[in-house]
Amino acid sequence: MSLFGSTPDLKTVSKTAPLAERMRPRTLDEYVGQEHLIGPGKPLRVQIERDDASSMIFWGPPGVGKTTLAKIIAETTKASFIEFSAVLSGIKEIKQVMADAEKASTYGSRTILFVDEIHRFNKAQQDAFLPYVERGTIRLIGATTENPSFEIISALLSRCRVYTLKALTDEQIRALLERALNDEERGLGSLHVAADDDALEMLAGYANGDARNGLNGLEVAARLAQSAKSRITKELATEALQQRVLLYDKKGEEHYNLISALHKSVRNSDADASLYWLGRVLQSGEDPMYVARRVIRMAVEDIGLASPEALNLCLSARDAMDFLGSPEGDLALAQAVAYLALAPKSNALYTAYGEVLSDIETTRAEPVPLHLRNAPTGLMKALDYGKGYKYAHDEAGRVADMECLPESLRGRTYYHPTAEGREKLLSQRMEEIRRIKEEKR
Questions:
Q1: Which residues make beta-bridge pairs with 58?
Q2: Is residue 335 a contact partner of residue 269, using CB atoms and an 8 Å limit?
Q3: What pTM was estimated for this model as a whole?
Q4: Residues with Cβ < 8 Å from 288, sequence gap 6 or more?
């Protein structure tokens, strides 16, 4: 098969192809969404109209038009188009394609290499593109659902413009569904199927910003409507959809986004938002025990000693989830999350321990002071192990005037309790201990 036979023909799509493929926009005027990029005078629109040969990365969730844009660019600029899957191709195929593209360029042929899921290429595979992108042998257009900063090597990223594509709104997806219902050439117009407003709203909501999901759902609903009353009702749409599938990738950025939203809502004492994000995480298929571990982390990082019982509650919630499983155990996590959100907050201990680790990293590892060492043998006693140790229980106030830090850190204070919750009492106790020590000096 020739790699450089023609530009992509967006007008000739098999009638047996899925509806989402048949309805793929063929021009920028048909394209829906991403007005911040392809609206009049916007950066990507200008780049396309000027036939700018720069390479680029399209970053956005599934079904927002990354592949479609690449094909429109190729057709608009009359360039040869190669669609390359990072899932199916290795470095051998990459080098062969690059060599063929370089040969074609000597005859004045321009090549756009579209790499879907470019984040799946490893460093060596991405490195293979570099010299050809740099020389302009190919115009690389990569598509990724993952943050390019993390997934694409810096050398390649610096040679590409990154465009962020947004999930489509429900209104935009509904417009696409209505277009598909009425289009007799590529869509479902020949079926003469109508749809109720609430059915279209449900299908658009189900899509979750993904045009492909919305069109797939519409296609199933239309086929079901043919054997009914030739009308898509809300009940029929529900039957077609079966279950709403939320965008989630346990190893991708959305995984971290949802957990981050949960953690930050708890930290900000927003119980309602905390419960919402917990529900999103659990309903999206995350391992409940992973969520339980993160909730326990919140208890020690953001609540701390301001409400020390929070840790026990979270540990109990983890045990309940382990014992009951989901969905019964979900309520235990919800109870823990709501409590954390409403509990007094303190990161004093978290900050203190961070400073301890920093001092350990940056200061000399001094030996334990002799008075803090045990002396179980005569030799150790002869070497002054334990000499000068004061037993606190024998001291007034149960506090001895004795330095317990290494000499270079003498007097260092790490823990600064807040005035929140139980820490207010701890702060008073620390002040009392300081006073007792000063009186003994």
A1: 143, 163
A2: no
A3: 0.60
A4: 282, 321, 325, 326, 329, 330, 333
* Chain segment 263-283, per-residue pLDDT in tens: 999 999 999 999 999 999 988
Residue 390 exposure: Cα atoms within 13 Å on the Cβ side = 14
Query: Any idea which residue has 């592949």 for tokens?
Result: 67
The DSSP call for residue 301 is I
* Token duo for residue 91: 């470095």
Strands (DSSP E) along 204-363, which ranges?
231-232
E runs forming strands in 92-246 = 111-116, 139-144, 160-164, 194-195, 231-232
Report the DSSP pairing between strands 231-232 and 194-195: parallel
Q: Give the span between the Cα atoms of 11 and 24, in whole angstroms.
A: 9
Residue 10's CB is within 10 A of a number of other CB atoms, namely 16
Write the DSSP assignment of 163-190 as a string of letters: EEPPPPPHHHHHHHHHHHHH-TTTSSGG
- Whether the predicted pLDDT of 174 surpasses 70: yes
**pLDDT for the residue 14:** 65
| pLDDT beyond 80 at 60 | yes
Structure tokens at 290: 């992973």
Q: Which helix (H) or strand (E) element contains residue 135?
A: helix 130-135
Length of the chain: 441
Record the tokens describing residue 143, joined without a space: 């598509």
Q: Tell me the pLDDT tens digit for each residue of 83-92.
A: 776 665 666 7
Which pair of tokens denotes residue 286?
């995350």
Distance CA(74)–CA(8), nearest Å, equals: 7
Structure tokens at 327: 């969905």
Average pLDDT, the chain: 85
Closest C-alpha among 212, 209, 216, 174 to residue 195: 174
CA–CA dist 200, 181 (Å, integer): 11
Q: What is the pLDDT of residues 121-167, one digit of tens each?
A: 888 888 878 888 887 777 889 898 888 888 888 888 888 889 999 88
